[in-house]
Amino acid sequence: MKLDPIDLRILDAIQREGRITKLKLAERVGLSPTPCWNRLKRLEEAGIVTGYHARIAWRLVAPQTGVIVEITLGQHRQADFDRFEKVVREAREVVACWSVGGGVDYVLKIAAADIDAYQRLIDGWLEREIGIARYFTYIVTRTVKEAEG
Known about the structure:
Order of helices and strands: HHHHEHEEHE
Strand content: 15-25%
Largest sheet: 4 strands, antiparallel
Helix content: 40-55%
Mean pLDDT: 91
Oligomer: single chain
Radius of gyration: 20 Å
């Protein structure tokens, strides 16, 4: 799907403010409401806009420790990747997982209640023998910038 400058302005506006009204969105991108809304629906139907989300300050709800983990698997067959990724998808503590190139196979972002909860998660994965050969843990001490996308 080819996007024009108006489509890009719509995407920028809804990414910054997902709850923007139809009227405000139309004003922001320089269209009348109906054509603007039609363009937004087209972007949704094309799968470019995949959803609308709330960013929640979980630290205000319950104590939380942020952890970044680099994981290298022992074997690199498709079945090894599939087994590991299935377990990661099922773990609610894992808020993001990226398969990466370079010296490691995966980088994970984990939100755990505390360090002990994080270590119990990792220990459980190691006991289940899901293919982890090495892992490196980085505790998040302060968030400087975080955005969706």
